[in-house]
């Protein structure tokens, strides 16, 4: 029989710190390592673009539906994007609190929030990544100014939550966008209506950047780790989100909860995010 360290059950935090002090983690990762990540694209045939991401045991699927709409009055020459993230209670072995049980939003840990708060936070984060990275030129979604444009509904569903859902959502979203196809459509000005050509002719959708989100967390004053799993999220005192768009540029940095970070710690977070983003783009996100 295998020997079981009783401290793993009775004192999980102290058990975890034993590994951290040796610059490793219980799952044999280094402090800067992410879990194995795999992407499957075009896995849903009822949408315009889709993907399935496995980050360790965290699984997220993304489906993008393109619909025709009238442009907004204040942006007549642009289409728009709507992001929605769902994290069902059944996707995690640990029960979420309902909104009636949680009176405040704790920013120090995603897992400490209610289902509704977690979903709202992740949906807004994905929306911000699209906006800040400028990966989508919304003018290219416009078919006829003031008359017709595309709206992209990006729906992400967490199938299994073993931590760091936000990074998996970002990879799934960008992978689905890279494989998004829109059919050719014209606008008949005389009849004031769209004209669809049959048989349908699809065109690839161009991304102007490939944002990759990297989550790092701190459990002590000077210990930073990348890609937390579910158990690590329970231990973390603060976490940092860094989104890179290439090997030298970041578009979004957020620190939530916990203690203040030193300049050198923040620089370490950014450098790790740049390295991780480069690795994800070159080896994982596929066309």
Description:
The chain contains six helices and 14 strands. It has 287 residues and is α+β, with helices and mostly antiparallel strands. It has one domain (9-283): GHMP Kinase, N-terminal domain (Ribosomal Protein S5, domain 2, 2-Layer Sandwich), CATH 3.30.230.70. Strands 1, 2, 3, 4, 5 and 6 form a six-stranded mixed beta sheet that branches. It has a four-stranded antiparallel beta sheet with strand order 12-11-13-14, with helices on both faces. Strand 11 and strand 12 form a beta hairpin. Helix 3 crosses helix 4.
Short characterization:
The chain is about 25% helix and about 30% strand.
Tally of structural domains = 1
Strand content: 25-35%
Query: How would you characterize the largest beta sheet?
Result: 6 strands, mixed
Counting copies of identical and different chains, the oligomeric state is single chain
Structural class: alpha+beta
What's the total number of strands?
Answer: 14
* CATH top level class name: Alpha Beta
- Gross geometry: elongated
Helical residues, percent: 25-40%
Give Rg in angstroms.
21 Å
Q: What is the CA-CA span between the terminal residues?
A: 46 Å
Low-confidence stretches: 95-111
CATH architecture: 2-Layer Sandwich
Q: Could you please say which CATH topology applies here?
A: Ribosomal Protein S5, domain 2
How do the SSEs run, as a string of H and E?
A: HHEEEEHEEHEEEEEEHEEH
* CATH superfamily grouping: GHMP Kinase, N-terminal domain
């Amino acid at each position: 029989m295998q020997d079981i360290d009783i401290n793993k059950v009775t004192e999980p935090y102290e058990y975890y710190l034993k590994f951290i002090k040796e610059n490793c983690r219980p799952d044999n990762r280094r402090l800067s390592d992410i879990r194995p990540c795999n992407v499957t694209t075009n896995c849903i045939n009822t949408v315009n673009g889709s993907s399935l991401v496995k980050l360790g045991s965290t699984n997220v699927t993304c489906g993008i539906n393109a619909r025709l709409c009238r442009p907004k009055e204040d942006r007549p020459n642009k289409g728009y994007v709507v992001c929605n993230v769902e994290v069902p209670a059944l996707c995690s072995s640990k029960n979420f609190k309902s909104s009636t049980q949680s009176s405040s939003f704790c920013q120090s840990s995603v897992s400490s929030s209610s289902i509704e708060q977690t979903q709202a936070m992740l949906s807004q984060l994905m929306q911000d990544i699209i906006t800040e990275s400028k990966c989508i030129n919304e003018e290219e979604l416009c078919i006829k100014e003031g008359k017709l444009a595309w709206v992209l509904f990006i729906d992400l569903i967490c199938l299994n939550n073993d931590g760091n859902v936000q990074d998996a959502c970002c990879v799934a979203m960008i992978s689905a966008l890279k494989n998004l196809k829109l059919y050719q459509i014209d606008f008949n000005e005389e009849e004031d209506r769209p004209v669809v050509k049959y048989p349908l002719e699809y065109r690839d959708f161009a991304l102007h950047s490939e944002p990759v989100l990297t989550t790092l967390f701190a459990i002590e004053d000077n210990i930073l780790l990348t890609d937390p799993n579910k158990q690590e999220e329970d231990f973390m005192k603060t976490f940092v989100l860094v989104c890179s768009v290439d090997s030298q540029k970041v578009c979004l940095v957020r620190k939530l909860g916990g203690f203040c970070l030193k300049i050198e710690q923040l620089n370490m977070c950014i450098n790790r995010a740049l390295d991780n983003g480069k690795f994800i783009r070159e080896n994982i996100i596929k066309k």
